[in-house]
Design a protein that fits this description.
It comes from Clostridium sartagoforme AAU1. The protein has 246 residues and is α/β, with parallel strands linked by helices. It has a single domain, classed as Uracil-DNA Glycosylase, subunit E (3-Layer(aba) Sandwich), CATH 3.40.470. The protein has nine helices and seven strands. Strands 1-2-5-6 form a four-stranded antiparallel beta sheet, with no helix packed on it.
């Protein structure tokens, strides 16, 4: 069963109120959910709000430590104010969803393949702000995953071949996807090859219908040195796909 802020609020309240935390403060037993060998999964309230009416579903591998820190810092401040749990879950989603340079790169690439024009938006940045009713963001694994205390990249070990990680995809991601309204009409945008590979596997199993996955979209990390090359190679194909899909 998915863990939520209801389960972890007392542990979060123990933390000092801060804008961000260190790994020494968060990668502790209070937030450790599961582990296998050098893989560890920790709690974060980043993926608890669900926009069931979204048209665009942007999917990452797992929240990174920066997202974990921002989400927990947001929850800590809101708990201090006595805010409603549902409202806190939404604020954690807004604060943490693909923050920083990753969000900037996502928006830039989506605008370049004309998704903003298809949705009648000035820019896809609107989907993260005033027009966020279009957007739902999620991770295949909803909780932060670390390999040797570093952000898990999807490749070491290879996600699609790791039973420990795939268990979370089948138990969490699929249940969330199936709860979306009109899910057959949603545009699925996997961030990078590791996510695309898993979605294609789910497509082959009939969980995702054919023609929903925007293939060839690069991982938006600044560390992805092949991002711009991959984007240029697939740009026209992605533009045509979006025009047909939406």
């Amino acid at each position: 069963m998915k863990k939520t802020l209801h389960d972890y609020k007392e542990k979060i309240i123990k933390l000092p109120i801060k804008d961000k935390y260190s790994k020494d403060e968060l990668l502790i037993n209070d937030f450790l959910m599961d582990k296998e060998n050098n893989l560890e999964i920790y709690y974060s309230p980043h993926n608890e709000y669900l926009n069931s009416k979204a048209k665009v579903f942007i999917i990452g591998i797992t929240p990174g430590f920066q997202q974990m820190s921002i989400s927990i810092a947001t929850a800590r401040k809101e708990l201090e104010l006595g805010s409603d749990i549902k409202n806190i879950q939404y604020k954690c989603k807004v604060a943490g969803r693909f923050s920083g340079i990753i969000r900037k790169n996502i928006i830039s690439m989506l605008d370049e393949i004309n998704l903003n024009k298809v949705l009648n938006l000035n820019s896809c940045s609107d989907m993260f702000e005033k027009s966020d009713y279009f957007l739902h963001t999620f991770s295949l694994i909803p909780y932060p995953v670390f390999f040797n205390k570093q952000n898990y990249s999807g490749h070491t070990p290879k996600m699609i071949k790791n039973k420990f990680l795939m268990k979370y995809i089948y138990e969490s991601f699929i249940n969330e996807f199936r709860s979306l309204d009109n899910r057959e009409q949603i545009l699925l945008i996997p961030l990078g090859k590791a996510v695309e590979e898993v979605l294609c596997k789910l497509e082959g199993e009939g969980i995702i219908i054919k023609g929903q996955i925007l293939k060839g979209f690069p991982h938006p990390s600044g560390a992805n040195v092949n991002r711009l090359i991959q984007f240029r190679e697939n740009k026209n194909i992605m533009i045509n796909f979006i025009n047909k899909k939406l």
